[in-house]
Amino acid sequence: MPQMRVAVAGAGIAGLTLAVALRRAGIDCHLYEQAERLTEVGAGVQVTPNATRLLHRLGLHERLQAVAVAPRAIEMRRWDDGRLLQRTELGDLCRRRFGAPYYTVHRAHLHGVLLSLVPPDRVHLGARLTAVTQSADEARLHLSGGTTVTAELVVGADGIRSVVREQIAADRPRYSGQTIYRGLVPAHRVPLLAEDPRVRLWLGPDRHCVCYPVSSGRQVSFGATVSASDWREESWTARGDGTELAAAYAAWHPDVTRLIGAADTVSRWALHDRESLDRLSAGRVAVIGDAAHPMLPFQAQGANQAIEDAVVLAACLADAGPDDLGAALRRYERIRLPRTTRIQQRSRANAAVFHLADGDAQRRRDASVQASSGLERHEWLFGYDPEQATTTSRS
Ligand SMILES: Cc1cc2nc3c(=O)[nH]c(=O)nc-3n(C[C@H](O)[C@H](O)[C@H](O)COP(=O)(O)OP(=O)(O)OC[C@H]3O[C@@H](n4cnc5c(N)ncnc54)[C@H](O)[C@@H]3O)c2cc1C
Hints:
Keywords: FAD, Flavoprotein, Monooxygenase, Oxidoreductase
Distance between the termini: 19 Å
Shape: globular
Domain FAD-binding: 4-346
Strand order of the largest sheet: 5-4-13-14-15-12-16
Pfam family, one: FAD_binding_3
Bound molecules: flavin-adenine dinucleotide
GO molecular function: FAD binding; monooxygenase activity
CATH architecture of the domain at 6-68 and 108-173 and 277-358 and 378-394: 3-Layer(bba) Sandwich
CATH topology of the domain at 6-68 and 108-173 and 277-358 and 378-394: FAD/NAD(P)-binding domain
Organism: Streptomyces carminius
């Protein structure tokens, strides 16, 4: 459908990946982003083989490799004595098994890598979407300041508070009762956690902490959850109180307390998700990424699923004839919904599994994670190829 006009709300990981994938398919699109500038915010993100495979095919192999770290393993440990509960080998083993690496990356670097393939005149900054309307022939983005943009297809890549999603569902984000403190520490302050790169998790009663190196190994990114009923803020730049964080983890293993203590500043983020949808489009409007299926970060898949969505949607649109938009969008949601719903639900369930109190249930969990180490456990997640699924759905 080469002449189709596509307007995308949001230039996050979902919107930018869609722009790159559509361009590869010969479809032009414009992105409308509320931020005035695309600046460096946030901390780390784990990009798993199911998504790095797609980024490589989009032509981002070298650019991604230049900023990423390839951890050698994922390690889960007990919160107090640091005893190893489970180790999953990554590195070359992962590359060989899944044909793509497992990376840890600074969010802003991933953003920059994607942006490098989007022509600057296709990204409209300071363009905040306030409403979407549509008729049989076109959809309209209404932007703050009174501008209206028309297109044959509007894609909502506008995150968990999506305005575009209102065309599809009348739901609201759900607070999980968890907040997460995030920080970036210069690698030289925590050499033991930076050298021999690994994704490290410590699991304990009511909270857990995860860390990994980013920025080609120059920084270590961490996220430490704390339950709180009264905190609702979602912003990569909302300041957290380092003293409160240190108090919450005071009795934890010294590797954790040293890491937390080494951060100059921490941000704090209230964790929300939403119920799964039974469709991802309505008329001339579709949603991808967090706008479609915001999930808790306890499986590190939100951005990875956004990348999968973008690639599948672009392929469905590229395959469709000029009058087949409806069929293309139905195909997109048929391919994506079973997978994203499963991952959304598992991410929610992981909160309870990670945060068990010391006792029998925790001991049973530890025995089961010890028994299940190994990459084969992740086959369904990392081995999945959404482009292959799209090809299969053609026949
Ligand atoms: C603590 C934490 C850790 C995480 N770790 C991982 C991880 O390791 N791996 C992983 O895969 N995922 C992870 N995630 C999830 C991941 O960050 C998100 O799933 C991902 O950023 C979603 O990308 P997106 O582009 O859909 O949405 P967003 O990143 O929210 O981007 C939406 C964009 O739309 C813009 N926008 C919003 N509203 C409007 C509007 N009205 N008009 C115009 N523009 C608008 C925003 O400014 C933004 O640029 C984590 C999330 C959290 C909170």
